[in-house]
Amino acid sequence: MYSISRRLAVSQPSCRAFLARYFSSTPLVQNSSQGTDKFYVTQPIFYVNSDPHIGHFYTTVLADTIKRYADMQGKQTKMSAGTDEHGLKIQQAAERAGKDPLEFCTQYSDRFRDLQRASKASVTDFIRTTDARHYRAVEHFWNVLVERGYIYKGEHSGWYAVSDEAFYTESQIEERLDEKTGICRKVAIESGQPVEWVSEVNYKFKLSEFRDRLVEWVESNPDAIYPEIRRNEVLGWLRSGLEDLSVSRPRSRLKWGIPVPGDSEHTVYVWVDALVNYATVDGYPWTGKLEFFPPDVQVVGKDIVRFHAVYWPALLMAAGLPLPKRILAHAHWTMGSQKMSKSKGNVVDPFKAIEQYGVDPIRFFMIRNGGIANDGDYSSDEVMVRYKKDLAGQLGNLASRCLSKALKADVSEFARIAQEQQGENLVHRRDLALRKMLIEISDTVKLQFDKGEFGRGLGLIFDMLALANKHISDNEPWNLVKNQDEDSKRRLQVVLFYSLEAVRIAATMIQPVMPEKAQVILQHLAIPPAASRWSDTQFGCGWKDISADSMLKRPDSSISQLFPKLD
């Protein structure tokens, strides 16, 4: 059970250096000495053609976890979210609903804003592409591209997918049999959406001129696109060549969008419009020094990698703006290994999931079981397994056992015990294995978190808790408390220190994923907020900051109700 943690041990400098080279060379959140104190993470802006689903929730929680992880390292953070509200698909959907497009968009935009709140996402900026500030930003961005000679007018023909709001080349489409109708139709290979042949005059962006620069950017920045499967996918697209990109639509066909500056007969292509949002929320066009831009991490789903890892950096290069530092493209969610869809009736409502399990437990499940490279599979049974086995069975059980009034844990003594236990010669042989893991856990988990692999990091944390539960069972503090001799009293507090040190470190580390539950645990331990930073995940840290005030603020309620039984 614990061999993984042993193999990942980083107590020796040479081992730590090897692991740093083996894993991502650039941490997700760089130290202040390596960069700036500011940290900017973006969510993709969600398309307002339907209610939020569990995939939107996962993206939101993953981005929020990254933002909170940066908070723990003392960064001044910004996280953007919002809704993408223009395009032919929205125009047609509003017409079918018999609503004004803005009214239609507002209805769904409000639902996505509700999702941010329900998810406890610490969003600092929520943008709608129908905002006046965004219109100004897109118009300015377009004019910069024109001035720099990267936009021209010409005839464009190609296969167009209304659902994707994108043109595809001949090599990017294929014929597929529609199982419902029995009719063969042409679809985009990448998305599976039907395409139609369109020929029209519009504005084009000289995307082809950026092929070599984009290849150089990806190859010289191995962490710019993660995971590696997505990076290789992007390199494959680039090496096969790029065609110039159609960046407008005739207004006769698409009225719902931002007019092309100086040409009211054309509408700005929805993806150019949408991508600029990441600059809009940071005050673009800037009159002085950039504040947070470019983004440190852009969280996107794997289905929109092309737009974020090819079109977006090319547009930024053309505008003379800096490129994002990392694009983290996560996988999707399935149910029973099948793609979720309304027609199959297997779409998960995130609001109902939050109501059923609680926001922190469902956040935990999504991050623990969600995929970065590979799709995650959603199952109510699996949610309950994680809840009962990990949260209630490991974390909740250990905290409840050790904080039982019957055991008389004296956390005010733990700073002294932690100092005493730094020297291995004073450590009881029964404590050696757990002590070793507690010393190593901060670095091993950080290696995973720094890549965005929070699920793997959580796995290591719960391996540690499993060992801590075994340690307390083996040392039987409930028997030690019965003895009144001084040796038994001292041994009791040392045993409880090791168990609650595991709880403290775990609670500190899981704050980005389960912010509310983690804080409740730390309050029960009398750990103040000032002692719950990432640096406090080191062995023995945190207890020295316990004060009389923090002892008085400990909750009166029993921690045994931290993860109550669910029906």
From TrEMBL:
GO terms for biological process: methionyl-tRNA aminoacylation. InterPro entries: Anticodon_Met (IPR041872), Met-tRNA_synth (IPR014758), Met-tRNA_synth_2 (IPR023457), Methionyl/Leucyl_tRNA_Synth (IPR015413), MetRS_core (IPR033911), Rossmann-like_a/b/a_fold (IPR014729), tRNAsynth_Ia_anticodon-bd (IPR009080). Keywords: Aminoacyl-tRNA synthetase, ATP-binding, Ligase, Nucleotide-binding, Protein biosynthesis. It comes from the Eukaryota. It is an enzyme of class 6 (ligase). The keyword ATP-binding applies. It catalyses: tRNA(Met) + L-methionine + ATP = L-methionyl-tRNA(Met) + AMP + diphosphate. NCBIfam families: metG. PANTHER family: METHIONINE--TRNA LIGASE, MITOCHONDRIAL, METHIONYL-TRNA SYNTHETASE. Belongs to the class-I aminoacyl-tRNA synthetase family. This is Probable methionine--tRNA ligase, mitochondrial. It comes from Coemansia interrupta. The lineage of its organism: Eukaryota, Fungi, Fungi incertae sedis, Zoopagomycota, Kickxellomycotina. The gene is MSM1.
